[in-house]
Amino acid sequence: MPQPPAQARLDDRSSAPARPGASRSRRALTVLGALLAALLCALGAGASPAAAHAALTGTDPAKDAVLQRAPERVTLTFSEGVLLSDDSVRVLDPRGERVDDGKPAHVAGKSSTATVGLRSGLPEGTFTVAWQAVSEDSHPVGGAFTFSIGAPSKTSVVLPSAEPDETVSALYGIARYAAYGGFVLLVGGCVFAGHCHANRAVRRVAATGWGTLFGATVALLLLRGPYTSSGRGLGAAFDLGLLRDVLDTKPGTALLCRLLLLAAAAVCVAVLFGSYAPAGDGRARAAAGGPARPARGGGRTPVAGPALAGPTDLAWSVGVGGALVAGGLAATWALAEHASVGIQRALAVPVDIVHLLAVAVWLGGLTALLVALRTEARLPRLAVRRFSRLAFGSVVALVATGLYQSWRQVGSWHALTDTEYGRWLLVKVGLVVLLVGVAGLSRRWTSRLDTPHDTAPATRGAAATAKAEARAKAASEARPEAEPEPEPEPTSEPRPEPGAAAKAGGKAKNKTKTAAKTKAGAKAGGKAADGGARAAQLARQRAAVSAARTRRERDADPTRSGLRRSVAVETGVAVVLLAVTTVLTGTQPGRAETEQEAAGQSVTTGPVSLSVPYDTGGPNGRGTAEVTLDPGRSGDNTFHAYLTNPAGKPADVPELKASLTLRERGIGPLGISLNRVSAGHWSATGVQLPMPGDWQLSLTVRTSDIDQVTETDTLKVGP
């Protein structure tokens, strides 16, 4: 029995050998998928406290300091601004009870500081300072240190981990990646639909992006509280008090604004894809070369052309409104992350917005182009060329803004190779170069779309499939005539009694009418059921024929097949690139890391102490000088030197001299007038140091009239 044309075509496709190009494309996508999985694993395994962007650079009292009297306040200094809450700084006594006033604040309005007052009458012992805050670029930081009053003592304080819950941290990272992906699909899909080509599949890309971004933003808003509060699990995501605290912060406000902008984006998307297009808009579309969209209330057909075709007021309104909404969505990242912290903020924020929009137009448009190529047999060459020009402009903007951001965030070649941010940035640059290379191959395929020998196979394939579809339609619509149902044979029944003839005649007549009605209804119902089944079967057959025809026409054009494969590879690389970008936004910039290392080397948090061994070469000429500079900062200091012999007893020497020199600034040597306090103890007050830095200490020890030695070491003086 001959097969229907649709089924025969499907069988032919299933038995046809696989094309080498398709096999290469699948292998390339497999490799890219494995690379993405490896990067995501590295993201999960590499998450560490080093991703924090604000570092503690100074404390008062100093860490492990022993004070003779209780301080009035505890002050912390950070490398960048931090956001404070009621529990940002807690001071606990040896029994674990809070002794602070619970009102942390910035010192003199400086966002890079935090201070909290202490109660009066504190006992002697070791006190613990536990702190946690949120850096200006939205990342949580935390830690602890101790100081003692009178003398160190045992403490019963057990501090919770400063790191967020692992489950919360993992979900927060996934939501951040989903938010970036949703933004890319939403903006890129809408730009592709409005400028290049719009159909049902492209509409789904934009709608998927909107839904993903909305869901990810809600998740980030709920997870923000437990993510920035140490020791809080996933259940704290629904704590309304914690959510209210999040909304009072800059990152929380940015997320809330993003939700409001998404409401406006939904209106723009609805207008863009014709949900509220006026009936007269079809004339403008027809004048622009695209098919007229039917008026509202009629059947809607898929749009084959740009959604904003023609210089109409609606097109301008949707274009300008969509651009403003897209820029606002990008600003919710720029104003709450890296661009809002560091040097040149006024320039960095708009540059970051342009960078995000360029990424979204390029990568999101790639996804829309891939979907359009896979769902349409004859995607218009004008649509591909329009996107090619659009992608080129996006790449130019991406490179220009990326160079500026790289300089701003890295700052030096050393930071590019020796910091985590710099290494991830090199990976991103490599992926961008790879993506541009594949895009160049796609542009070559695009330039061949007008070549006659590339379009001929598709034309022949389209004609053949059109004829086959016509034959299938004719065969499926030919319905066999219904066979007449056989009449029921009469059956012999016993003769009724003469006395019941009239009564029985009436009953028989009624039964005959009822049976006839039942039989007629059954026949009508059967015919309706058969008709519905035939209609459903016909619809499925037509859909199969249409799908087979689309695939045949799509694969018959070698140029479009090559373009589709290269765009698929581009999209795979874009997915990996987006994952690396997400990692970068959660990694401490190289410039900040190097500045913190320099601050850690030059900034002190209390008295500076040195142990300087000496040997004059004479009798009793060996010993050690313990030198202390208090508070070890620029300005007024007190200098102490304690000399001991090898037995650890005070060593009394006839003369001790000291001086300080800051060679990098050409300051000094500054002599220190030492006074003998007791055996082995020398001191000086009012030692003025004009600026912080690495000061060279020269210590001259004379143990006899002829035995003398000068030793040098470095004192790190803070601001």
Q: Which helices and strands appear, and what pairs or packs with what?
A:
Layout: H1 5-15, H2 20-46, E1 56-60, E2 66-67, E3 73-78, E4 82-83, E5 89-92, E6 105-107, E7 110-117, E8 125-135, E9 140-149, H3 166-195, H4 200-228, H5 240-247, H6 250-272, H7 281-287, H8 313-334, H9 345-375, H10 381-410, H11 413-418, H12 420-447, H13 452-477, H14 501-556, H15 558-585, H16 590-602, E10 608-615, E11 622-630, E12 635-644, E13 655-662, E14 667-672, E15 675-678, E16 681-689, E17 693-702, E18 708-717
Parallel strand pairs: 2-9
Antiparallel strand pairs: 1-3, 3-7, 4-8, 5-8, 6-7, 8-9, 10-11, 11-12, 12-16, 13-14, 13-17, 15-16, 17-18
Number of strand elements: 18
C-alpha geometry: elongated
Q: How many helical elements?
A: 16
**What proportion of the residues is helical, as a percent range?**
40-55%
**Secondary-structure class:** alpha+beta
The percent range for strand residues is 15-25%
Largest sheet: 5 strands, mixed
Low-confidence stretches: 1-52, 275-303, 451-466, 475-504
Rg estimate, integer Å: 40 Å
Oligomer: single chain
Average pLDDT number: 74
| Distance linking N and C termini | 95 Å
